[in-house]
């Protein structure tokens, strides 16, 4: 009997479909809205600090971002922001939640091809309803043997996911756009990772240095490179 076949884990946002571009478009509108009160650097810095402070309560995703944006707007205007502008922020959040799911180039065919050869897990973090909606709208759901929507992606949560699905870390490869959330925790557990950067990265996900992992890490430019890269890992 041969060695067990690899199990592949996929991140969702900005790995399979566009996400950060939607946030960035709303950020631009947010900066314009608050531009008469403060400069862009102050708006960005204060909003980010509010988001980080609220993560433990709100988690990741559009709803937490919207609440933090409202809180920041109230703080930066000393409570003077008109109700109509607060309503604009709420509407921006609603638009983000209803935004069409746009797959990255090459995702549909690559994921389908890999699903025919390997067991695929979708492992993402964020708001449960929003991630479920995006997966349902993506047309990719049938390719995944299981879906894990997590509140955080760290060593403990990955270890729990692998236990639930009876996957040994040495037989697991995680694919994603974030070194911090998708790659480093899995490498720490003894698994492998394929990093496919997105052209925008949220500040909270940025890691300056790619890991050295004794052949267990691949840096790719496009998801279409993934099938060939997977064959280079021992099973």
Automatic annotation (TrEMBL):
Stored Gene3D superfamilies: HAD superfamily/HAD-like, Putative phosphatase, domain 2
Cleaved signal peptide residues: none
Keyword Hydrolase annotated: yes
Domain of life assignment: Bacteria
Record flagged with keyword Ribonucleoprotein: no
CDD domains assigned to the protein according to its UniProt record, in alphabetical order: HAD-like (cd07515)
Name of the protein this chain belongs to: HAD family hydrolase
UniProt-listed PANTHER family: HAD FAMILY HYDROLASE, HYDROLASE, HALOACID DELAHOGENASE-RELATED
UniProt cross-references to InterPro entries, sorted A to Z: HAD-like_sf, HAD_sf, PGP-like_dom2, S-2-haloacid_dehalogenase
GO MF terms held by the record: hydrolase activity
SUPFAM superfamilies, alphabetized: HAD-like
Species in which this protein is naturally found: Horticoccus luteus
Keywords: Hydrolase
């Amino acid at each position: 009997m041969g060695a067990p076949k690899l199990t592949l884990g996929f991140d969702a946002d900005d790995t399979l479909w566009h996400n950060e571009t939607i946030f960035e478009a709303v950020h631009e509108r947010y900066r314009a809205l608050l531009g008469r009160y403060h400069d862009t650097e102050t708006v960005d810095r204060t909003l980010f600090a509010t988001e980080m402070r609220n993560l433990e309560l709100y988690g990741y995703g559009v709803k937490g971002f919207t609440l933090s944006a409202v809180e920041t707007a109230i703080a930066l205007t000393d409570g003077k922001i008109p109700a109509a502008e607060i309503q604009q922020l709420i509407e921006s959040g609603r638009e983000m939640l209803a935004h069409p799911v746009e797959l990255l180039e090459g995702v549909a065919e690559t994921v389908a091809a890999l699903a025919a050869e390997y067991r695929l897990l979708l492992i993402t973090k964020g708001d449960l309803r929003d991630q479920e909606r995006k997966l349902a709208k993506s047309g990719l759901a049938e390719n995944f043997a299981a879906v894990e929507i997590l509140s955080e992606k760290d060593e403990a949560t990955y270890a729990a996911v692998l236990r639930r699905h009876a996957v040994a870390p040495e037989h697991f490869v995680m694919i994603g756009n974030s070194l911090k959330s998708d790659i480093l925790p899995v490498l720490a557990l003894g698994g492998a990772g394929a990093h496919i950067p997105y052209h925008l990265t949220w500040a909270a996900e940025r890691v300056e240095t790619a890991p050295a992992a004794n052949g267990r890490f691949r840096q790719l430019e496009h998801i279409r490179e993934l099938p060939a890269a997977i064959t280079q890992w021992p099973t």
